[in-house]
Design brief:
Layout (H helix, E strand, L loop, with lengths): L1 E6 L20 E4 L5 H11 L3 E3 L16 E2 L3 E5 L2 E6 L2 E2 L7 E2 L1 H9 L2 H7 L4 E4 L18 H10 L3 E4 L13 E4 L2 E5 L2 E6 L6
Parallel strand pairs: 1-2, 2-3, 3-4, 6-9, 7-8, 9-10, 10-12
Antiparallel strand pairs: 1-13, 5-6, 11-12
Length: about 200
């Protein structure tokens, strides 16, 4: 399965300089937040595949929800046979609809316990913020969540896909990483993932 993950800034390759058929290879698009709804709708319309998204910390105010897409924020959705657990938003550094303290985010994760039992875990953890100490930054706005580490360690999803930490912030911010058996992807702008189920 080929997945396009996007986050934070519009990718010229898939928007301004889009060429017909460029989105055809994808079976699924995942958005990690902070993207204009018009861009998200453009992708889902031309790709002819499902698009699943969570909110970013800048997705408050007057921004509308993108049409024709699946919001996974605060729940687990099953798309193309994949169980996707969505927890959008960032660490709280000011007032904002999609900003949370560590306790608040941990409470959101615990609130999915029944869904986790029903679905026997999840394949992809889709978030906006990174996990604490896993390619986050020391500044409060870009601090990651410790509870994401707990989820990864307990359920060992195939992928943890996030945005928020722009890769142009520094040369040492990786796009790909590993935490145990989980592949970690920073989806800033865009990233193409050839999804391989565990054990293959």
């Amino acid at each position: 399965m080929k997945i396009l993950a996007v986050s934070d800034v519009t990718s010229d390759l898939y928007y301004r300089y889009y060429q017909p058929g460029r989105l055809d290879p994808f079976d699924l698009i995942l958005s990690c937040g902070d993207l204009n709804p018009d861009y998200i709708e453009f992708l889902v319309t031309l790709a002819h595949c499902p698009l699943v998204y969570v909110h970013g910390n800048h997705d408050d105010g007057n921004r509308r929800e993108p049409e024709g897409c699946i919001c996974a924020d605060g729940r687990i959705v099953e798309v193309n046979g994949l169980r996707i657990m969505g927890l959008g938003g960032s660490y709280r550094y000011r007032d904002g609809r999609y900003m949370y303290t560590e306790k608040q985010m941990a409470r959101r994760a615990r609130g999915l316990a029944a869904q986790l039992r029903h679905k026997s875990g999840f394949d992809i953890l889709l978030t906006h913020a990174p996990a604490y100490g896993l390619n986050d930054l020391p500044t409060l706005p870009h601090r990651g969540f410790e509870c994401f580490n707990t989820l990864i360690e307990q359920y060992e999803p195939r992928y943890f896909i996030h945005g928020h930490v722009h890769r142009n912030y520094g040369a040492r911010i990786p796009q790909w990483d590993k935490k145990g058996n989980t592949t970690v992807v920073n989806a800033y702008e865009h990233c193409v993932i050839d999804y391989q189920p565990a054990g293959t």
